[in-house]
From TrEMBL:
Family note: Belongs to the short-chain dehydrogenases/reductases (SDR) family.
Database matches in Gene3D superfamilies: NAD(P)-binding Rossmann-like Domain
Domain of life, per lineage: Bacteria
Cited InterPro entries: NAD(P)-bd_dom_sf (IPR036291), SDR_fam (IPR002347)
Alphabetical list of Pfam families matching this protein: adh_short
Keywords tagged on the record: Membrane, Oxidoreductase, Transmembrane, Transmembrane helix
Membrane-spanning residues: 139-160
Native source species: Archangium lansingense
Identification of the protein by name: SDR family oxidoreductase
Length: 268
């Protein structure tokens, strides 16, 4: 098993048990990458690993890890060391949002969001980028969001976490120029996945009934992969989302806060 595992170039995909991460893993397998699949639920990832082996003949290593926990990233890094894998692609996709007012949402879940969306993403990037730079070959794809382009009342921590991902990723993209390593921020609009169910646990935001339209996880993942391959710093899939990403930073702050606050507030 181990010699077969080592024969491939490798991609680590966090949040591979559903949604955009599942689709990104499938696309990377199609492109010939062996996969390191990371999330808390190992059942769906084992099923995915079998599918990828059958469809594309690529091996996968399934890593069950809670990336919001302090030892989560260490578990992934230890697994890479055990299998002696040099990672060519890192996809930091695991993340979640929570709709509701800041003071009412459970503090533990809010801090978990910071730990996952920001700390784990930064830490895994810090662990894997030095090897990529040493080999002068690597791609990092960080999943941000359209939410990265404006502050978002009633999803304040989530929007701020994605603004961090966009800022961090584009800065690192510039820093690594000429070293054979690119960093791409993928900024999807509302996409049909398990995201909404978790985000609406405390408050059903207007956004989740899809007034701005919904995207398909496969199309979002494909846009992310194409941008990664071209080494683009940012990709916003979908025309109306691209318009929003262009328009939002130009609009007055008061207007942005009203629009985002309206979309994130409860329908009732
Ligand atoms: N869907 C949208 O509308 C949308 C829009 C913009 C950006 N995004 C971003 O896209 C990314 C993927 O989300 P998605 O839409 O595909 O949602 P999803 O279907 O809920 O997928 C989220 C993934 O993250 C994993 N995850 C969650 N908590 C984790 C933890 N503590 N440790 C390890 N893995 C964890 C989940 O697996 P387990 O539960 O098995 O751990 C799952 O595989 C997220 O960063 C999200 O913020 C989504």
């Amino acid at each position: 098993m181990d010699s077969m595992v080592r024969a491939h170039k490798y991609a680590v995909v966090t949040g591979a048990s559903s949604g955009i991460g599942w689709e990104l893993a499938s696309i990377l397998a199609r492109e010939g990458y062996g996969l390191v699949l990371v999330a808390r639920r190992t059942g769906p990832m084992r099923e995915l690993a079998d599918q990828l082996q059958q469809a594309h003949g690529v091996p996968s290593v399934v890593v069950g890890a809670d990336l919001a926990a302090p030892e989560g990233v260490r578990t992934v890094v230890d697994e890479l060391k055990t299998h002696q894998l040099d990672v060519e692609v890192l996809v930091n996709n695991a993340g979640f949002g929570l709709a509701g007012s800041f003071e009412a949402l459970p503090a533990e879940q809010q801090m978990g969001m910071v730990d996952l969306n920001i700390r784990a993403l930064t830490s895994l990037t810090r662990e894997l980028v030095p090897g990529m730079v040493a080999r002068r070959r690597g791609y990092v794809l960080n999943v941000a969001s359209l939410a990265a382009f404006t502050p978002g009342p009633f999803m304040s921590v989530y929007y701020a976490s994605k603004a961090y991902v966009l800022s961090f990723s584009t800065a690192l993209h510039a820093e690594l120029k000429g070293q054979g390593v690119t960093v791409t921020a993928l900024c999807p609009g509302y996409t049909e996945t398990e995201f909404a169910a978790r985000a609406a646990e405390h408050q059903k935001a207007r956004l989740f009934s899809g007034p701005m339209g919904t995207a398909n996880a496969r199309q979002v993942a494909e846009a992310g992969y194409q941008a990664l391959k071209r080494g683009k710093p940012v990709v916003v899939p979908g025309f109306s989302n691209r318009f929003s990403a262009w328009f939002m930073p130009l609009a007055p702050l008061a207007l942005r806060l009203r629009i985002a606050g309206y979309m994130n507030a409860s329908e009732h």
